[in-house]
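Sample pair:
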Amino acid sequence: MSVDQLPRFRWVEVLQNRHAVAFVMCPGQSGRTLCGRFVTLPYVLRRLGFAPECQVCDDAWRREIGVRTRAEVLAGSPRRCHGRTARPTPRATPSSGSG
Protein backbone atom coordinates (compact mmCIF):
# COMPACT_ATOMS: atom_id res chain seq x y z
CA MET A 1 0.00 0.00 0.00
CA SER A 2 1.49 3.32 -1.01
CA VAL A 3 1.42 6.46 1.10
CA ASP A 4 -1.20 8.11 -1.13
CA GLN A 5 -3.54 5.15 -0.49
CA LEU A 6 -3.49 5.55 3.29
CA PRO A 7 -6.61 7.02 4.86
CA ARG A 8 -6.20 10.63 5.95
CA PHE A 9 -8.06 10.23 9.23
CA ARG A 10 -8.97 7.59 11.80
CA TRP A 11 -11.33 7.43 14.72
CA VAL A 12 -10.11 7.29 18.32
CA GLU A 13 -11.92 7.48 21.61
CA VAL A 14 -10.70 10.54 23.49
CA LEU A 15 -12.48 13.15 25.62
CA GLN A 16 -15.42 10.79 26.22
CA ASN A 17 -16.27 10.78 22.47
CA ARG A 18 -15.03 9.24 19.25
CA HIS A 19 -13.06 11.89 17.37
CA ALA A 20 -11.36 11.86 13.98
CA VAL A 21 -7.63 12.53 14.04
CA ALA A 22 -4.90 12.48 11.41
CA PHE A 23 -4.09 8.88 10.48
CA VAL A 24 -0.38 9.47 11.06
CA MET A 25 -0.86 10.52 14.73
CA CYS A 26 0.80 7.97 17.02
CA PRO A 27 0.00 7.13 20.63
CA GLY A 28 1.53 9.77 22.89
CA GLN A 29 1.46 12.46 20.19
CA SER A 30 -0.58 15.62 20.46
CA GLY A 31 -2.60 17.18 17.70
CA ARG A 32 -6.00 18.49 16.69
CA THR A 33 -9.15 16.57 15.93
CA LEU A 34 -11.24 17.43 12.88
CA CYS A 35 -13.49 19.45 15.19
CA GLY A 36 -10.47 21.51 16.28
CA ARG A 37 -9.98 20.14 19.81
CA PHE A 38 -6.43 19.67 21.01
CA VAL A 39 -5.82 16.08 22.19
CA THR A 40 -2.96 13.84 23.22
CA LEU A 41 -3.50 10.26 22.17
CA PRO A 42 -3.12 7.75 25.00
CA TYR A 43 -0.22 5.29 24.75
CA VAL A 44 -2.67 2.41 24.70
CA LEU A 45 -5.45 3.06 22.21
CA ARG A 46 -8.68 1.53 23.42
CA ARG A 47 -10.87 -0.42 21.10
CA LEU A 48 -13.73 1.73 19.85
CA GLY A 49 -16.70 1.17 22.09
CA PHE A 50 -20.04 2.79 22.46
CA ALA A 51 -18.87 6.34 23.08
CA PRO A 52 -20.87 8.86 21.06
CA GLU A 53 -19.34 10.13 17.85
CA CYS A 54 -18.39 13.79 17.70
CA GLN A 55 -20.91 15.28 15.28
CA VAL A 56 -18.54 18.03 14.12
CA CYS A 57 -15.78 15.48 13.37
CA ASP A 58 -18.29 13.26 11.57
CA ASP A 59 -19.54 16.13 9.39
CA ALA A 60 -15.98 17.23 8.55
CA TRP A 61 -14.92 13.65 7.79
CA ARG A 62 -17.93 13.09 5.50
CA ARG A 63 -17.24 16.34 3.61
CA GLU A 64 -13.59 15.33 3.26
CA ILE A 65 -14.45 12.00 1.63
CA GLY A 66 -17.23 13.50 -0.50
CA VAL A 67 -20.38 12.02 1.02
CA ARG A 68 -23.45 13.68 2.49
CA THR A 69 -23.50 14.62 6.15
CA ARG A 70 -26.13 13.02 8.35
CA ALA A 71 -28.09 16.27 8.38
CA GLU A 72 -28.06 16.34 4.57
CA VAL A 73 -29.25 12.74 4.42
CA LEU A 74 -32.11 13.46 6.82
CA ALA A 75 -33.04 16.63 4.91
CA GLY A 76 -33.13 14.65 1.65
CA SER A 77 -30.53 16.75 -0.16
CA PRO A 78 -29.03 15.35 -3.38
CA ARG A 79 -26.21 12.90 -2.93
CA ARG A 80 -22.65 13.93 -3.65
CA CYS A 81 -20.14 12.00 -5.67
CA HIS A 82 -16.47 12.88 -5.08
CA GLY A 83 -17.40 16.31 -3.73
CA ARG A 84 -19.81 17.19 -6.56
CA THR A 85 -23.58 17.05 -6.43
CA ALA A 86 -24.70 14.03 -8.42
CA ARG A 87 -27.68 14.08 -10.72
CA PRO A 88 -30.58 12.06 -9.38
CA THR A 89 -30.96 8.68 -11.04
CA PRO A 90 -34.28 8.41 -12.89
CA ARG A 91 -36.55 5.75 -11.50
CA ALA A 92 -37.85 3.03 -13.76
CA THR A 93 -41.62 3.17 -14.15
CA PRO A 94 -43.65 0.04 -14.79
CA SER A 95 -44.90 -0.19 -18.34
CA SER A 96 -48.61 0.31 -18.72
CA GLY A 97 -49.09 -2.11 -21.62
CA SER A 98 -51.72 -4.83 -21.65
CA GLY A 99 -50.60 -8.26 -20.97
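The longest helix spans residues 55-65.
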